[in-house]
Amino acid sequence: MPLPIRNYAQLSKIKHFYGSKFLLNEKIHDKILDKLKIEKTFKNPKEMKVLDLYSGPGQHSAIFYNRYKPNQYGVMESRPDFQKILKEQYEGSPIQIFAKDPYEWTSYTDLIDSEKRFVPEKQPHESLNDKFMVIANLTNSAHEGLLMQWFNCIGNTNWLQRFGYVKMLLWVPVSSAIKLLAAPGMHMRSKCSVVREAFTDTNLVAISNGIEKKLFDKNLFESNDPFIFQNEDTYPQRGDGIALLEVNPKKHITDLDNWDYVTKHLLILRKTRLKDAVESLGHGAKDYFSQKVEDPTFLNKYPVDLTNEDFNYLTNLFNLWPFKPDIYMDFIDIYQEEGMM
Q1: Do the annotations mark residue 212 as ligand-binding?
Q2: Does the annotation list 21 as a binding residue?
Q3: Is 101 annotated as a binding residue?
């Protein structure tokens, strides 16, 4: 028997949405799942486990469960009004409700390691884990920093990414999606979009219809061809639009410590020519890089124009520098980067 699904009129009566926004149209959720074709990764969906973070009222949770009937579906939600509606609707159902805060690291270690109520299958970091997936709603603007932490966890293979390369479906504000998907040379290009490029293949799956669509890279928007829905299908309707990202972690050979140091320092000076910006990597770096970079025109670029491949090239040169500084004594705040995430 399929799980009951409450509609927009019923769910919009919830008193508090805690700064988050949710798509509450069952037909659109179905169309988005059609577009995702997760069966390509999860050959047998009934063997998969899904952890749904900040699930809110859980409409999408029930829709997903009814379609795929995964082996285990857990929602992690601690906000009182959402807890109440989830218990009313799904307590005693195949959807398990974990009253924990997805922001807290201990929520995961307790649930998985101590209580063992949700234990994903661990797979090698070679390809996407075909038994475990994460869904999350990070549309509250206060969660933007948490979103970036999760992308860093992919590079470091910790948090839930310790179980292999775990696909994530993330609902985020359109403004965050623009930052993450910014291409080299774009105004919003920053450390977060380089992290996204380095460690994932991320696709824009769906987006609410608004003028912000024009701020995405045109080629990316056309190639991803996101499903566009109306703001009237979301609640609350006020505020910025939302977008769904499909995040596919990928294998990388990045020298993480040196790469982080180089990208962090250079992107603080994102609009300073490389020939001058490299001096921020350490005293004497300008002379060193001018001798080592084979293409003299490369140093006329700006950090904002660089691809992750370019940053890897500079990182390799930095690592070979006999007089490079001790990167572990570096205390620069990455948020100096002109207000970028």
Answers
A1: no
A2: yes
A3: yes
Whether this prediction's pTM lies above 0.70 is answered by yes
Pick the CATH number of 256-336 from 3.40.50.300, 2.60.120.40, 1.10.8.100, 3.40.50.2300: 1.10.8.100
CA 203 → CA 167, 221, 245, 247, 249, distances in Å? Answer: 11, 9, 6, 7, 11
Looking at the structure, give the CATH architecture of the domain made up of residues 8-249.
3-Layer(aba) Sandwich (3.40)
Q: Is 77 annotated as a binding residue?
A: yes
Instruction: Give span(s): CATH 3.40.50.150, the chain.
Output: 8-249
- Is residue 82 within a helix (H) or strand (E), and if so which, with residue range? helix 80-90
Annotated binding-site residue? 179? no
| First and final C-alpha spacing in the chain | 44
Residue 106 has pLDDT above 50, yes or no: yes
Residues of the chain with CATH 1.10.8.100: 256-336
Q: What confidence tens digit (pLDDT) does each residue in 151-186 have?
A: 999 999 999 999 999 999 999 999 999 999 999 999
The three-state (H, E, C) secondary structure of 237-300, written as one string: CCCCCEEEEEEEECCCCCCHHHHHHHHHHHHHCCCCCHHHHHHHHCCCHHHHHHHHCCCHHHHH
Q: pLDDT digits over 19-65, tens only? A: 999 999 999 999 999 999 999 999 999 999 999 999 999 999 999 99
Respond yes or no on whether the N-terminal peptide bond of residue 236 is cis (omega within 30° of 0). Answer: yes
What tokens does 67 get? 């379609």
